[in-house]
Amino acid sequence: MSPRIGVVTFPGSLDDRDAQRAIRLAGAEPVALWHADHDLQGVDAIVLPGGFSYGDYLRPGAIAAISPIMREVIDAAGKGMPVLGICNGFQVLVEAHLLPGGLIRNAHQQFIRRDQALIVENADTAWTHQFEPGEEILIPLKNGDGGYIANDETLKRLEGEGLVAFRYAGVNPNGSLNEIAGLSNERGNVVGLMPHPEHAVEPGFGPDTPQAMRSGLDGLRFFTSAVQALAARV
Question: How far is CA 111 from the centre of its chain?
Fold first, then answer.
């Protein structure tokens, strides 16, 4: 039986259907979850998608982090369920204190959209174990509030414990400290990043590569990593 991976839709989500498609392409069954519910419908993993949940009022991700479904997500994450937060989903994970630090307005004060090179720093998580440490991958990026910040003590802990999952390569597009593009928790089941792997999963729709236009598929391995990790539990 294929694993079931839930995708939470908040008011203002806009990449939830893309995440569902990526899950399906990875060989799992996507399950739509609603922000106002307390029911995770027995899923094996969860994706918090990109968008502008609750209109980004207060701070991006702040209201979504206290929505009813997040009580269940926090509890499930604490028990080891794989959880991936993409862009706004990363902001929700930070606001829910499942990952440390904060995300603020891009340093240049502009919304950015580009195909972004990343360095894989942590290939020992439920969502990244099909990558190699130090591997450079290409993932689409689109955000206005993607600048990662944390105090010095937190940054030292993240670096010292290997919890930086991804780092921007070539250019720091939003002023993130230490070029941090994504994080993992200590257990390796929770991962958040600003770029959008769900937009690099299918030929003809991903980023351009030296091989061909729109041929980038690096994002698919996020989802196949989770499928493989879940299969190993059975």
Answer: 18
Q: Is residue 207's pLDDT more than 90?
A: yes
Locus of tokens 């990343």: 118
| Residue range 144-166: mean pLDDT, rounded | 97
Q: What is the pLDDT of residues 68-115, one digit of tens each?
A: 999 999 999 999 999 999 999 999 999 999 999 999 999 999 999 999
Q: How many domains does the chain have?
A: 1
Supply the range of the domain harboring residue 83.
4-233
The torsion of the CA quartet 125, 179, 138, 144, rounded to 10 degrees, works out to 110
Report the alpha-carbon distance of residue 220 to residue 223 in Å, rounded: 6
Residue 160, classed as helix, strand or coil, is helix
Q: Are 125 and 133 in contact (CB under 8 A)?
A: no
The DSSP output letter for 85 is E
CA distance 223 to 128: 9
**Which positions are annotated as active-site residues?**
87, 196, 198
Give me the residues paired with residue 55 across strands. Answer: none
pTM more than 0.90:
yes
Rg (CA), the chain: 16
Angstrom distance (rounded) from CA 149 to CA 195: 16
Q: Are 6 and 41 in contact (CB under 8 A)?
A: yes
**The tokens of 49 are what?**
């998608």
Token pair in block for residue 17: 């259907």
- Domain containing residue 8: CATH number: 3.40.50.880
Question: What digits encode the pLDDT tens for the residues 14-73?
Answer: 999 999 999 999 999 999 999 999 999 999 999 999 999 999 998 999 999 999 999 999
The pair of structure tokens assigned to 218 is 């690096």
